[in-house]
Structure formats: structure tokens, C-alpha cells
Amino acid sequence: MAVPAHRIPALVVALLIVLAPWMLPVWIVTLLGYVGLYSIVCLGLVLLTGMVGITSFGQAAFVGLGAYVSALSIIHLGLSPWLTLPLSLAASGLAGALIGWLTIRLSGHYLVLGTMAWGLGLFYLFGNLQGLGGFNGLSGVPRLEAAGLSLVEPARFMLLVWALLAILLAGTTTLIDSRAGRAIRALRDPVMVESFGVQSASLKLKVFVAAALFAGLAGWLHAHYLGHVSPSPFGINASVDYLFMAVIGGTGSPAGAVLGPAVVESLRTLLRDAVPALQGVGGNYEAIVFGALVILLLQRASGGLAPYLSRWLPQRPPPRAPAAAQPLPTRKPPSAGSALLEVRGLGKRFGGLVALQGVDFNVPAGEIVALIGPTAQAKARCSIWSLVCCRRLRARCAYRASELTRCRRARSLLVGLLEPFSTCGCAPT
Amino acid sequence: MNATIATLLVQDGLTSGLIYALLAVSIVLVFLVTRVLWVPAGDMVAFAALTMSLLRQGIAPNTVWLLAGLGLLAVLVQAWRCQRSGEWQPMRGVLLLALIPPVLGYAITRSGLAGADAPVIVHALITLLLVAPLAPLLYLTAFRPLAEASVLVKLIAAVAAHYMLVGFGLFFFGAEGLRTPPFISGRLDVGITTLSWHLLLSLAVSIAMIAALWVFFERTLWGKALRATAINRFGARLVGIRTERAGLLAFSIAGLIGALSGLMIGPIATIYYDSGFLIGLKAFIGVVCAAMASFPVAVMGALAVGVFEAFASFFASALKEAIVFVLLVPILLWRSLTDHSLHGEDD
Description:
The complex is a heterodimer of chains A (429) and B (347). Chain A is an alpha+beta fold. Chain A has helices at residues 8-23, 26-52, 59-77, 81-103, 108-128, 154-177, 179-185, 190-195, 200-226, 236-249, 254-274, 276-279, 285-300, 306-310, 376-388, 409-415, and strands spanning 138-139, 145-146, 149-150, 228-229, 339-350, 353-364, 396-399, 402-403. Chain A has two domains: 5-312, Orthogonal Bundle (ABC transporter involved in vitamin B12 uptake, BtuC); 339-415, no CATH class. Chain A starts with 7 loop residues before the first helix and ends in a 14-residue tail after the last helix. In chain B, 73% of the residues lie in helices and 2% in strands. Chain B is built from 14 helices and two strands; from the N terminus they run H-H-H-H-H-H-H-E-E-H-H-H-H-H-H-H. In chain B, strand 1 (187-189) and strand 2 (194-196) form a beta hairpin. The N and C termini of chain B lie far apart (49 Å). The interface between A and B is large, with 54 and 52 residues.
């Protein structure tokens, strides 16, 4: 069986990882384990930041949630570490769903501030809540074992982490190429995707939960590898670290999620070991170097390092559209003359300017209805207002005799209404 | 809890709230003009407080080297831009900004003119000279090349800049917290309660600063240009405003406000090299109240955060920070529910 050329780099990396415990010293193998662990979190960030265009400064809090839930349920309920994995995932997933539901509707920077607030709030809760061991944390979390073998031995742990990472990478790549993945990648422009019938808010929430689940998995691994849980690795600095890793690697592809942690961790080790002369001075060089690197990358190459690497690797063939597609089901057209759209009491003000007031109109099936009036904007927008935000404007709109109550672009498209667009703008200089 | 404690808590809250309010103003200003979320606002505060504290102890602060290094970088970046555009006229301003503060700061701090026994005002002015120019220099090196990038990219850059500043902070000031001796100690008896002189001084400085900003925005051409840029960047360019210069001006004002706030916070709290982030984030709560747009609402919001924090630390001091940040979430929700323009459904 011939292996497609674009798969070879991934297979070579996988082979090197599997051979690493026999070829490399233990400290590099341990480092690889951590790189894998961070990559799992970064993969969630690639989905969030690179695909959806929203970002989270609270990802480490989800990692912490996974770790704490597992540690607590073992200490108090005496479960085996493997049984707590579903609990960890459920906790981080539920927290992701709740936090996401509360914050996802915020736009760009509000959302980021919101995730930051959640991250900080959870961090202080970990440190201050009764029974969580305060800032010293919980010790004595049992290590992972399988078939009598301890999995915290660095080589085995590394292989376990990378095996999980490989599954997640394969899943994410498949997802990105799927129909849902295309919708996810288009979410940056909510008006556009909603006009294509995608429920943008719920899709965003799903991606947010997926990222939280990845983080929860990493937290579970973290707790059972170290055997100790404390708040400090789950604070805001850790969240920023994860985001920087993702940005440095490149948020445009799953490969960036692995490349970023690899580059950052190697640089960190180099800085710690190769600059011993600076150690005595007591500065935080990592922060300075990574901060500068991130700013430089954002200025010069906002796609991160992954595109530079992939330029030298065999390209994957462009996806080919199927020769023939299933025809879409056709709707039954309404009988001519029956009421299609009825609008009552549509009004819109911009501050003191009344654009529309008390507009009533009917559109019967099979007829063309023209709207005549003095202001261009109000006429062009009239249909949008009646279709998309009639409830907020306290107008009553009915389509084929059923009231439009949940006025969302995606929904109106699903019942057969298409929103008109008229946009004009100057090309930026 | 009785009335006496409550008035004291309100006073404490207002004293820190005033600092958050000034920072909130600088954050809103920078955001409106450049769309950068000014995360390092808090670091300006920490740097100023720590620099002032060192100066009061008669130690020459090393912040001057950061200023010199950043200035050099700004000159290099500007030279590269000038080389590409072939127009060397903007170079002069950048050279002045990059060279004068570090040279002057170095000369004064190392010559012994500003020893531990120099008057407070001299130390305060040197602190302003050493810290305030960091913000415009950061703009020239980090943010101006990103002028066309998305808000999210600028935000990540701002967090990266904050990270770098914290790294430098540890390098220059060490991990120990420092506190400045009060400028004027004691309290003023006004009958029902006693007011600390520091609160009155902070109030006077804040009001003077806000009044100066008001005059600047209402009465001067540059202020109006800044407002125009804030309202519509593209439109401002059409009428001949150099939006990049407006950005530089906004950052300069933000640096000045940050350094002033740092002078004010030094005597009321022990400041560590990384204290800036939390201070800045509390100012952000005020900013979010104002939907990133309104100065008066931002000030009120930040004052409320200060008072809220004072009471929270009285009732549940361990959970103080958690309470303050979880406060942000309902405010964000309220904003997202009331402000429809945020999620693009309406015009």
C-alpha cells in the first residue's frame, strides 16, 4: 500500500517518538512527555483561535478543573484513576458548556476578558476553597498503572500522552476537513455563516466545549503523572503560556499545536541551561524572550512557525469535489395568492431619527412587492429588520402564517427566507 | 461592621478606585484611538511605584536601561520605515522621544542630584520622566507595525508586551515588594470622619488630570484630531489626520496617566514587580462597564470596583480577588444583553 506523500512527515515524527525512549536520554523523553501534554491543550486553542477566531485566556483553568476533579474523586470516593477520566472530562466539559454559554455571545475582546475573569476566578477558588488544600494543593494522587506497569515512568507516560495526542490530532484533522469543519472555519464572519443556515452561537459553543475537554484530558494526565495537584500550574500565567505556544506554533493548522509547545519547551530548556551566567541576576528571561518572540511573529508572520515548516514538506493534494452531488430536496411551493409574509407595526429609530414607523405590509405568494419611500437605508433594511430582528423591534411578523419568534438568520433561512444584502464600503488604503 | 468602619472602607475603596479610574480612562483612550487593549496599563503603575520607591531610598533605578533599550529599538524600527518610504522627516520626533528621557534620566539619577534627601516633587518628576515614555516607545516598536491587524492579534501582542514588562520588572526590581513612604501623612478631621491626606491628594491629582484631559479634548486641535480618530479612523485620515501620530499621542497620555497612578498607589499598597496585571484588570472592569467607549461611565465603574474591593476584603479577605473577578462576568453578561450592536444582529 502506497503512503501518500503528504502523510510521510507525520509518520516520520510518529516513528521518531516511538523510538525516542531507546535513543534519547531520559530528560529529553520527559520533556517530550510535557510537550505532548501541552500540545493537547494547544490543539483545543488551535480549534478555538485558529478556526473560530475567538480566544481563551482561561484554558489553564479547565486543565486545573480536570486535575482537581480527578484528585478529589480519588481521595474522597476511592475510585481508580482510570474511572476518574470520565469524571474529569465531564467536569471540564460541563464547566466549558456553562462558561461558554455565559460568555460565548460576547464579541472579540469582551470574550477574552470574560475567559480571563473565569480563569482568575477559578484559580483563586482552587487556592482558597475548603478541602482543596489551599495553595499547597493535594498530594498523594495515585499514579497511573495498566496491567501492573507503572505509567509514570517517563518513557511510558510519554508514549501514552503521544498516543492520545495522535488520536486527537487525527480526529481534529478529520473534523477540520468535514462539512462541520468548514462551517467552523467560516465562523469568523457570523453574518455570512448564519446566512448559509449555520447556527453560529451553538457551533461556537461546541468548539468551546471541545477545547475545554482537551484541556480537561490534559489536566487528568497531569494530576496522575505528578501525583500532586496545586493551583499554581493552572493560573493566568499558564493560560497565557498555552496561548503563546499556540501562537508561536501557528494557529492555522493542527501541526502548529505540536510545533508551538516543542519550540517553546526547547527554547525554555536552552535558556535555563545555556545561559547559566544570567541565572544569578534573577530575571525572568523566558517571559522577556517569549514576549518578544510573540510580538515579532505577530508583526512578521501572523501564521506562526508552522507555515514556514510546511513550505519545505510535501503538500497535500487539494481536495477534489465529488463529480456529482445529491440534489437538495425541494420545498413545496405555496399556492399562489396565499399569505407568505405579513409584517405589522415595524418601526426603527436611530436615537432621535425615526427611520421607519408603523410599517404594515403583506407579501402574497407569487407576487412581487415593491417598497417606495424617501430614505434609501430604511427601505433596504426594512426586510432585514422584519426578518432578523422583528422581535426586538416589537414588530409582528408571520411567514406562511407562523409567527417569526426566534428571529435568527440561520432559522429564517431554514424555513425558507433569504435575507437580502446591500453593503457598500470603501476599499481600505 | 459599623458606620465608622464603613466610612473608612469607602475611603480606602475610593483611594484605590481613583487609580483604577485613571487607568480606565487611559485604557479607553488607547482602545478608541488604536484598538489596542492596553493590558500593560497596570505595568506602568507597578514600574512607576517601584521606581519612585527606589528613588526615595536614594537608589538609582535601572529602569533607565529599559528606556534606553526600547528607545534604541524604536529608532531602529523608525529608521527601517523611513528607509522604505524614503521620507526621513518623522525621524526627528522619534529621536527626540527615544533619546532625551533616558539621557536626562541617567544624568539626573547618577549625578546625585536626586539623592534620598531630594524633595518629593523632584523624585516624582524623575519617575514620570523614566516611566511615562515607555508607553509611546512600546507603541512605536510593538503596536504601530500591527496597525492593520485584528483586535484579537493586537490583544495577544498587548499581553505579550505585558509579559515582557513583568520579566523586566523582576530583573530591575527583584521579587521583593516595595512601598513608598506617604507624601503627606496623617488625616484631616472633618467632624463626622477623618479623611486621609493621601485620599485628598489623589483626588486633587485625579481631578486635575481629568480636567486637563477634558480641556485637551474639547479645546485643542490635537485633542479633536484624537477624538476624530477614535470615532472613525478612516474618516479621520480622509480629512488629513495622521492616525499613527494620534496613536502615539494616545499612548503618551496613557503612559503619563499610568506613571501618575503609580505615584499615587505607592503609599497605599505594597507593590511587587507583577502587581500591575491585577491592578490593570480591575481598571478593565470599569472599562467594560463603559462598553469601551464612555469616559465618565468608565470612571464611575472603576470607582465602584475600588469600593466593592474594599468591602470584599473586609468580609472575605481570602476570596477578595476571586470576588472581584467574578464580578466582571455579570457585567459582561449585562453588556452583552443590553448592547445589541455587540453581536452584529442590528445595525
